[in-house]
Design brief:
19 helices; globular; tryptophan synthase activity
């Protein structure tokens, strides 16, 4: 029907495989390096942190990797997720553009994160792992892994960035309800955490520090592995179920996006919706139309827009391998913006590589502009988005207004990666005028970039 709002795929049409963009890239991804030897990593280098199946996925160049049936059975609780046409928002904006959004807030944790948490927990359980450690910013990943770990009888310890731990107490409560232990980071529980606190007792924390703490604990215990919610190839792989579903749903709508938009911090939900569409273009054929792919990031932490494309550590303690990515420097601490899931110093290597190849565009936006867009969206479409997702909404609205100014009827698709029900304090601050735009320290950024590892090209 011409006024259809939502497009729902039957469970039987849920994708049976994840899409791996590495198979279609015109130039291979630069390999991760061992921090000691600066030589490309082998599977044995990752064995202390990840199960074998995850390591294989991390290094795979196969185009499609089958989703295990037990994992699909769990994903079916909320997948396929709905695709919506934002007709009321279109009318409010007075735009000739058509706006669609893929809504990932229907999962138990309220975001896209369980798409990777469930397979990661399952693969670990299959290989006899008993405990998982991880980090989380806003808490969407930490709560997702808590949920997934509970499904498979795994003990989960989450190091949550201190500023988000304080800002979002109900995310912490959700993790604990699902059986996980949540610790504010930096913490006195690890050698690295104690070192940070000794120097900066009131440190607000960062994802880089929280990663260091989680990796330190996992590396010291034989029955414990580390699980990561973004950045690495296997996480982005798991999230491509979003875009694979969206392709089918856009076909149901008789439409095809001219512009694909998502917020970007570490890169997981962005890759999830964008990579399958980029893959269509790379492979050619009837679906290879020219699409613009927009990554929207916070102005306070603009790794794609302002960062340097270089080899860097994924964590602050320099315990992780070196990966080539857009980075603000592993020693850089972003301001305490409310979009805690976007406060990461680096960008996923695959997303960074895609930008270097000219496959995507990056745009940075201020948080007050994002919240204004989030409120507009909520009043038109009824969904209160997580602060991270308001960046994507801002991008979609700006593109729709561009279409209005240019008199173009383009099709816009964006990923609404989670709801904001645990983030209402930030909306309250916005409504009362207490939310302000935050700027990073240029001197701190310059210092962090000057400390990048010396790796010859």
């Amino acid at each position: 029907m011409s006024d259809q709002i939502k497009y729902l795929l039957d469970e039987s049409r849920m994708p049976k495989a994840w899409y791996n963009i590495a198979a279609d890239l015109p130039v291979p991804l630069p390999p991760p390096l061992h921090p000691g030897t600066l030589q490309p990593l082998g599977p044995s280098d990752l064995a202390p942190l990840f199960p074998n199946a995850i390591i294989a996925q991390e290094m795979s160049t196969e185009r499609y990797i089958d989703i295990p049936e037990p994992v699909r059975e769990v994903l079916c609780q909320w997948r396929p997720s709905p695709l919506f046409r934002a007709r009321r928002l279109e009318k409010l904006l007075g735009t000739p553009a058509k706006i669609y959004y893929k809504y990932e807030g229907v999962s138990p944790a309220g975001s896209h994160k369980p798409n990777s948490a469930v397979p990661q927990a399952w693969y670990n359980a299959q290989e006899g792992v008993k405990r998982l450690t991880t980090e989380t910013g806003a808490g969407q990943w930490g709560s997702s892994l808590a949920y997934a770990g509970g499904l498979y009888g795994l003990d989960v310890t989450v190091f949550q960035v201190r500023v988000s731990y304080d800002q979002k107490p109900y995310r912490r409560a959700l993790m604990e309800t699902w059986g996980a232990r949540c610790i504010p980071s930096p913490s006195p529980e690890t050698e690295y955490g104690r070192a940070v606190l000794a120097k900066y007792p009131d440190h607000i924390g960062s994802l880089g520090i929280a990663i260091s703490e989680a990796v330190e604990v996992a590396a010291q215990q034989d029955d414990t592995k580390y699980a990561l919610g973004s950045v690495l190839n296997h996480v982005l792989l798991h999230q491509t179920i979003i875009g694979e579903e969206a392709i089918l749903q856009m076909e149901m709508a008789g439409d095809d996006p001219d512009v694909v938009i998502s917020c970007v911090g570490g890169g997981s939900n962005f890759a999830g919706i964008a990579f399958p569409f980029i893959g269509l273009g790379l492979r050619g054929g009837p679906n290879a139309k020219k699409r613009r792919i927009l990554a929207i990031e916070p102005s306070a932490c603009p790794s794609l827009s302002r960062g340097k494309y270089a080899y860097d550590f994924g964590d602050t303690a320099h315990l992780t391998p070196l990966v080539k990515m857009h980075t603000l420097g592993s020693d850089f601490t972003p301001p305490g913006l409310h979009a805690g899931g976007l406060r990461y110093h680096g960008m996923a290597p695959l997303v960074s590589h895609a930008k270097e190849l000219g496959l995507i565009e990056a745009r940075s936006v201020h948080q007050t502009d994002c919240f204004a867009a989030g409120v507009m969206f909520a009043r038109a479409e009824g969904i209160v988005a997580a602060p991270e997702c308001t960046h994507a909404i801002r991008g979609a609205i700006d593109e729709a207004l561009r279409c209005k100014a240019e008199g173009k009827s383009e099709t816009i698709l964006f990923c609404l990666s989670g709801h904001g029900h645990f983030d209402m304090a930030s909306y309250t601050n916005y409504m009362s005028g207490k939310l302000v735009d935050q700027e990073y320290d240029e001197k701190e950024l310059a210092m962090a970039l000057s400390m990048l590892p010396k790796v010859e090209a």
